[in-house]
Amino acid sequence: MVKIGDIELPDFPLLLAPMEDVSDPPFRALCKEQGADVVYTEFISSEGLIRDAAKSTMKLDIYEKERPVGIQIFGANLDSMLKSVEIVEKSGPDIIDINFGCPVKKVVSKGAGAGILKDIDLMVSLTEAMVKHTKLPVTVKTRLGWDENTIKIVEVAERLQDVGCASIAIHGRTRAQMYKGEANWHPIAAVKNNPRMHIPVFGNGDVDSPEKAMLMRDKFGLDGAMIGRASIGYPWFFREVKHFFETGEHMAKPTMEERIEAARRHLQMSIDWKGERLGVFETRRHYTNYFKGIPHFKEYRQRLVTTDDSAGVFQVLDEVYEKFGDHQFV
User: Fold this and answer.
1) Is 229 annotated as ligand-binding?
2) Is 185 a member of any domain?
3) How is 257-296 classified by DSSP, letter by letter?
4) Where is the DUS-like FMN-binding domain (predicted)?
5) Which of 4, 102, 201, 232 is catalytic?
6) What is the pLDDT of residues 87-111, one digit of tens each?
7) What CATH code is carried by the domain that includes residue 110?
8) Does 72 belong to an annotated binding site?
9) Taking the model in full, what pTM does it have?
10) Domain check: are 89 and 179 in the same one?
11) pLDDT of 213 strictly over 80
């Protein structure tokens, strides 16, 4: 059993990573149904929460069916982060997660996200202050370091643990790498193998097959996997990994009927949550993976990502089922 604070999870839990414009309530619901053990919100700006910015406060929406759920916040100003903790608590999450890993320039330039990897003392003091400011478990998601020359993740993880961090998820790249190259899980394993570490250590980065998840568990000895890009438009990834763990075999790929149903539900839930325009627009990024591997699908894919009204998208999905309903995915 793995525990985050008092939250009990199965052995080697699968966590849905916080992803901007992806990990919203509709998508989290689909992933939860398909076996995600913990889900996280999109990352939320502490400054935006304090200003009561609509985009930030909307991301606080969580639902009972998705528990345990973590709300992730980012920032570099202590007062703002503490005030945001108070705001976040009112939404009733199970976990508060701090983003110390986002590599995007607009976040890093403010010293937040992966930008804080240049100031480990600040990273630790912010975490300590937040732990003391809430009764909820505080967790951290970060990267190996700023660049290849500053990888001190074993020391950093231990310091975070020592100030009360309840678990740590580590992406196997530096900020300098962004998302290029291959994720390096060896430094994450070194964190786990540090005899002083007792909190869960989760791996993140390039977990894109059941075999990779098993490798992370069996060879690298980590406590769980945080799944990001492999789940976009493919919430079934979680159940496929668990099936592989249990049987050593790959389960059958979701049928066209399952994919159409998921895409329709995803779109409808998105519209219900964020309105017609945003609901249609922000669901587009998922369609490529929902229907990946279908020959001669380009015309339909183009229509799915350019149609501006939901009625039109639902019509295209109907047409997809009529034309490709018998397609066998392998």
Assistant:
1) yes
2) yes
3) HHHHHHHHHHHHHHHHHH-HHHHHHHHHHHHHHHTTT-TT
4) 15-318
5) 102
6) 999 999 999 999 999 889 989 988 8
7) 3.20.20.70
8) yes
9) 0.94
10) yes
11) yes
